[in-house]
Amino acid sequence: MDDEWQGWDGETIVHLSDGSYWEQSEYLYEYRYSYRPAVEVTNGLMLVEGMTRAVRVKRISVVESTIDGAWSGWDGKTELQLTNGSKWRQAEYHYEYRYAHRPSVIMFDGKMLVQGTSKPIRVSRISR
């Protein structure tokens, strides 16, 4: 892993240094901060250096993009535009304030994870 690790939270998305993305698929909450821990994935189980046990994960395909402009978080009905021109609307309630200018996002399975936010949020496309 090429970045910070803060542990498992039930919905953790992991980006490995080989470019692959993995989604936690079993519930476990375990906090442990580490910078660039070693990671091993075998038979759908991910073991992160320093954690007490391996956790079941699934590999996911993502689309990476950037929010076009300022971002102030999720408010329950947030609408946003990505730099590729597509527009999206929040489709599930979640409130989380987080200011950033042009944060990166990953999209997978109808959800969007904005850099620096706590969890992926279900979204629906408004237009291209």
General description of the model:
With 128 residues, this protein is mainly beta. It has a 6-stranded antiparallel beta sheet with strand order 10-15-16-17-13-12, with no helix packed on it. It starts with a strand and ends with a strand. The mean pLDDT is 95. Strand 7 (39-42) and strand 8 form a beta hairpin. The protein has strands at 4-5, 8-9, 13-15, 21-24, 29-30, 34-35, 39-42, 45-48, 55-60, 63-66, 70-75, 79-81, 87-90, 95-101, 104-108, 111-114, 121-127.
Distance between the termini: 33 Å
Q: Please state how the strands of the largest beta sheet are arranged side by side.
A: 10-15-16-17-13-12
Low-confidence stretches: none
The sequence of SSEs as H and E is EEEEEEEEEEEEEEEEE
Main sheet record: 6 strands, antiparallel
How many helices in DSSP terms? 0
Helix content: under 10%
* Annotation, overall tally of beta strands: 17
Percent in strands: over 45%
Q: Characterize the overall form.
A: elongated
Average predicted local confidence, pLDDT: 95
Q: If you compute it from the alpha carbons, what radius of gyration comes out, rounded to the nearest whole angstrom?
A: 15 Å
Instruction: Kindly name the structural category.
Output: mainly beta
